[in-house]
Amino acid sequence: MLKTTLTSVLCFFVLNFNSFGQSKARTFQEAEKMGKSYQHLDKLYKSAVHSNTALAVFKTGADQQKCYGAYTVLLQDPGRFLNQNNFQWERPTRCFNRIYISADGKIDYFVYHFLPNKEDPNYQVSEIKRQEFAKLLARFAQDYQFSVSANEPFAPCSPVV
Q1: Distance separating alpha carbons of residues 130 and 133, to the nearest angstrom
Q2: Could you give the number of structural domains in the chain?
Q3: Could you report the per-residue pLDDT of 76-94, keeping only the tens digit for each?
Q4: N or C: fewer beta carbons within 10 Å in the chain?
């Protein structure tokens, strides 16, 4: 019994080290616990687009359109990746994300938070689905290349379903 318990504890630590220590994808709460709160990250990464163009990386209409197009693809690609890995939500799931991207287009941090379900306010994403999603999203973010680069790091954000 002790050997089984020790093995389980060791597996837990190994899995959590790999999932959270090296992962680029985290919930807002996990990122904050690791010293990477969105307030801290927002100081390092400018907003991709902003109503005040002085606060934005993509300032002109043409550059903003390129960013929007690339961001739309970025929001669709994880869905394809999840489907390819046989991941299905239990029901439509709302999420807010902020994606911190290096100047060369690599994802540095993909921070997200599950939002309440409007149709069923009592619905909660199961812990198993949360863990599976986090693992797959981390794999997705590891090698993703945003199709638009900039002179400085930037961060788009939005709610998604």
Answers
A1: 5
A2: 1
A3: 999 999 999 999 998 889 9
A4: N
Rounded CA-CA distance 159/161 in Å is 7
Residue indicated by tokens 């690609």: 77
What H or E segment, with its residue span, contains residue 100? strand 95-101
Q: Is residue 107 part of a domain?
A: yes
Nearest to 59 by CA among 124, 159, 151: 151
b/e sequence 56-88, b meaning 16+ C-beta within 10 Å:
bbbeeeebbeebeebbeebeeebeebbeeeebe
0.85 cut: is pTM over it? Answer: no
Task: Check residue 116 and give its pLDDT.
Answer: 86
In the predicted model, is pLDDT for residue 5 greater than 80? Answer: no
Q: Report yes or no on 134 lying in a domain.
A: yes
For residue range 105-130, what is the model confidence (pLDDT) as tens digits? Answer: 999 999 999 998 777 777 889 999 99
- Which residues on neighbouring strands pair with residue 111, listed in sequence order? 26, 98
Q: Is residue 84 part of a domain?
A: yes
Torsion of CA 38, 158, 115, 86, to 10 degrees: -110
- pLDDT in the model for residue 12: 35
**Cα(86)–Cα(74) distance, integer angstroms:** 19
Residue 4 lies in a domain: no
